[in-house]
Design brief:
Order of helices and strands: HHHHHHHH
Shape: globular
Strand content: under 5%
Helix content: over 70%
Distance between the termini: 34 Å
């Protein structure tokens, strides 16, 4: 299986970067909200805690995890490694750190309402960012790559594999000290359906854009 290392077009690259920026900021905002995160966020936070990194270094933890998973995928399922994957890893990690720092500056207090608002904003950014990134279809993030690999080898439905995988991530992350809170029980059931719906919407807009560009050439 060959890695998909074909360079994407400039407009696809910019859209991928935009999606990854929104995802990173969203994760950083939820991290600062301290009301709980999605399964991936809990896992990153658990790794951050295990490595004794500061709270604003959750993006650094994501670098470590995603690099390890990408190395694994390179040998196990190289077709799921692409330049799009690299873009996501690099941009997401940086903006997850910066998003946390930004909210520490803008919302320094511990008020429940303010922290909850930050968490909801973060979830919205994460959903939109992932939907944009998935819609342009230039690669998958490391976690999705592992889910696709597991789907291939188990021959089970992807939805079932992803549910079990996300549940495992959340449990492991919590054991390692990741934040589990009331917001987790909002983020996990809401994000999946919302991402699926928005992805279809963005795909329609994306293909219309491509058709217009092709007509001009």
């Amino acid at each position: 299986m060959k890695a998909n290392l074909k360079l994407p077009s400039l407009d696809d690259t910019m859209l991928a970067v935009t999606g990854a920026v929104l995802c990173g900021l969203g994760q950083g905002f939820m991290n600062h909200g301290s009301q709980g995160m999605d399964a991936v966020g809990i896992f990153y936070d658990g790794i951050r805690n295990t490595l004794s990194l500061s709270q604003d270094q959750i993006g650094t933890a994501s670098y470590i995890v995603c690099f390890a998973l990408s190395v694994f995928l390179w040998f196990a399922a190289r077709k799921y490694v692409s330049f799009g994957s690299i873009i996501y890893i690099v941009v997401y990690g940086a903006f997850a750190n910066w998003g946390t720092l930004l909210m520490e500056w803008l919302v320094p207090g511990d008020g429940l309402i303010a922290r909850s608002a930050v968490a909801f904003l973060g979830l919205a950014l994460l959903i939109v960012g992932l939907s944009v990134y998935i819609a342009i279809d230039i690669g998958v993030d490391a976690f999705t790559g592992v889910v696709l690999w597991l789907t291939d080898i188990t021959r089970k439905k992807m939805g079932i594999v992803k549910f079990i995988f996300d549940l495992s991530l959340g449990v492991i992350g919590f054991i390692l000290g990741g934040k589990l809170g009331w917001f987790t029980f909002v983020a996990i059931p809401v994000s999946g359906p919302a991402i699926a719906r928005l992805t279809k919407r963005f795909q329609g807009l994306y293909f219309k854009h491509k058709i217009k560009l092709a007509a001009k050439e």
